[in-house]
Write a structure and sequence with these properties.
InterPro entries: AAA+_ATPase, ABC1_TM_dom, ABC1_TM_sf, ABC_transporter-like_ATP-bd, ABC_transporter-like_CS, P-loop_NTPase, Type_1_exporter. Keywords: ATP-binding, Membrane, Nucleotide-binding, Transmembrane, Transmembrane helix. GO terms for molecular function: ATP binding. It is a multi-pass membrane protein. The strands form 3 sheets. This protein has a 6-stranded mixed β-sheet with strand order 6-9-10-3-11-12. The protein has a 4-stranded antiparallel β-sheet with strand order 2-1-4-5, with helices on one face. It has a two-stranded antiparallel sheet with strand order 7-8. A hairpin with a 2-residue loop joins strand 11 and strand 12. It folds into 2 domains: 309 residues, ABC transporter transmembrane region fold, CATH 1.20.1560.10; 233 residues, Rossmann fold (3-Layer(aba) Sandwich), CATH 3.40.50. It is an alpha/beta fold. It has 23 helices and 12 strands. Bound molecules: adenosine-5'-triphosphate (ATP).
Length: 613
Amino acid sequence: MWKALSDPLHYPRSQALAERTPAAQETQAKRPKRKAKNWQATLKRIWGYLARRKGMLSLVLLMVLVSSGLSLLGPYMIGVAIDRYLEGSGGTPWLLFLAALAAVYILGSVAGWLQNVWMISIAQETVYRMRLDLFRHLHRLPIPFFAKRQRGELMSRMTNDMDNVSSTLNSSAIQVFSSALILVGTVIVMLILSPLLMVLTFLVVPLMSAGMKWITRRTGVLFQERQRNLGELNGYIEETLSGQRIVKAFSQEETVIGEFGERNDRIRLSGFWAQTISGFIPKLMNGLNNLSYAVIVGVGGLLAIRGAITVGVIVVFVEYARQFTRPLNDLANQWNTLLSAIAGAERVFEILDEEDETKDEGGARPIRAVRGAVSFSDVIFSYVPGEQTLKGISFEAKPGETIAIIGPTGAGKTSLIQLLSRFYEADSGTIAVDGRDIRTIERASLRSHMAFVLQDSFLFEGTIRENIRYGKPEASDEEVVRAAELANAHSFIARLPGGYDKVLQGDGGGISQGQKQLLAIARAILADPAILVLDEATSSIDTVTEIKIQEGLQRLMEGRTSFVIAHRLNTIRRADRILVLKDGRLLEQGSHEELLARPGLYSEMVRGHVQFS
Ligand SMILES: Nc1ncnc2c1ncn2[C@@H]1O[C@H](COP(=O)(O)OP(=O)(O)OP(=O)(O)O)[C@@H](O)[C@H]1O
C-alpha cells in the first residue's frame, strides 16, 4: 500500500473524486442559495477579467497542485519513517530521508510563495482593469444617472468594493481553491490507508458543516448590510463635506455630527456582529478538531494493537486530520471574505451595466462647423414620467443672437439648456442646431461646439493654465494668455504668486468667487464655441469684479449664439430675444421693447412687481 501511494502520479488521479467528497459537497452547499444566480453571473464576469492572464493563471494552478501535493506527501513520509525505522525494518539511510523530507517542505514553501506572487500580479492587473472600466464607464453615464445617486456612494464602489475584490483575489480565492484541493487529496489518501479510521475522522464533519452553515447564513447578511451601511456613510460624508459652508452657516454642525454618529453606529453594530459571529468559526473548528484527534488516537490505538494498522498510519491520520480541518477552517474563514468580495464585484458590475450615453442613435453623425442657429419646436420634457417640466416650448435663435431666459424659480430655465446640450432628452418635439435635429448629431460632437459658464463653474485641482486649457488642451501658452486677457482675468492672474502656474486646490480653493467666474470665462473663450450657455451669477460680487465679468462676458458672447439665464435687467435688455418661462410654459418671447409694450409677466417683472428669479 505504501508503495502505491509513494507514486506521485497517484495524486492527480484522485482529483476526479473531488466533486463527490462530503467536504466538497459541503463547500458547495454553503453558497448563499438566495443569490445563486447573480453570484454565478458575477463570478463569470470576474473570470472574464482573470482569463486575460490565462498563462500565468495556469502556472498558479500548477503551483497550487504542487504545494498541495507536497503538503500531503510530508506527513505520509513521516508515517513511512516511523514504521520503517522505529520498528527496525530498515531502509533509506536517516540523513537521506531527512534531506528528502526537508526538500519536500522547502519545495512546498517555494511553490506556495510562487503561487502567491503570481496570483498577486494577476489580481492587481484584474483590479486595475476593473477600476479603469468602472471609471471610464462612470464618465460615459448620462447626467440623470448622477442625479439619482449620491456621489459618496459611487466613490465607495470605486474604492471599498474594488479593495474587497482586490484583497480577495490576492489571497482568498486561491486559498479556497488550494484548501479544497488539500481536502480532497487528504480524503483519498485516508481512504486508501484505512477506510474505518477515515469514517471515524469524518464523523465531526456534519457537526462542522451544521455549525458553519448556521454561522455563514448569519454573517453573509451582516457583511452585506455592513457594506451597504459603509456606502451610505461615505455618501453622507461626501455630502456634508461638500455642503460644509451651508452646515456652518445654519449652525447645523451638531445635527450633522449626531446623524453621522447614528450611521457610524449602524456600521459598528453590523461590523461587531459580523466579526463576532464569524470569529466563532475558528473556535468551533478547533474544538471539533481536538475531538477528532481523540477519536483517531483512541480507535487507531485499538486497531494497531490488533495489528489492523501500523503506528505510522495513526501518525499520518493525526497529521491529516489536522490538515483536513485546517483547509476546512480556511474555507470557512475565507468564505466570508469571498462573500463580501463577490457582493462588492456585483455592485461594481451593477454600475457597468448601466446604459451609457456614448451609444448615439443609429445614423448619428458628427457636426463639423456650426453657425449657431438653434430652434425648439413643441418640446415637451419631464424628469419624472407623467409630470411635465417643459410644456411645448417653441422658439428660434439666429446665429450670433443672445437669448435671455427668465422666469420665476422652478420655471424650467435650467432644464431648457440641459436639453440643448443633451444632458437630458426631450419626451417629444424637436431641437435643432443649424437645422439638424440634435438626435442625429453625435453627443460629443454637439457638445464640442458649446461652452458653459455656470454659477458654480467647476475648477479642477491643477494650475490656472491647465484649468483655462481644459476645453482646448492643444492651446499654446500665448493663446491661454490671450483668452485670459479677453476675459479680464489676466491682471489678477499676473498678481498671483506663481501666475499662470499657481496650483489651485480642488474647485478653485484659494481664489475668490469672482475670480473663478473670470477663469471660467477665459476657459470658454479659449474653447471658442459657436453656442454659449451662461448662468448669470446671483451671488453678490464686488462692483469692480462685476464690471470685469460683464466686460469679459460681452467679449465672449460676441459672434456666438448665447443662452443666458439672466437675472440682471441690464443683461436682459441687451438680449436680442427674451424667453419668459413660468411653470414650464413659454409665456412670452420677444425683445425688451416688444415685451414691455404689452401687458404680461415681463412688464410686471420689469416694473418690479415680480422677481426675475
Ligand atoms: N433632476 C431633477 N429631477 C426631478 N425634477 C427636477 C430635477 N431638476 C429640476 N427638477 C424640477 O424641474 C422644475 C424646473 O427646474 P429648473 O431647474 O429647470 O428650474 P429653473 O427655472 O432653472 O429654477 P431656478 O431659477 O431656481 O434655477 C422644478 O420644479 C424642479 O423641481
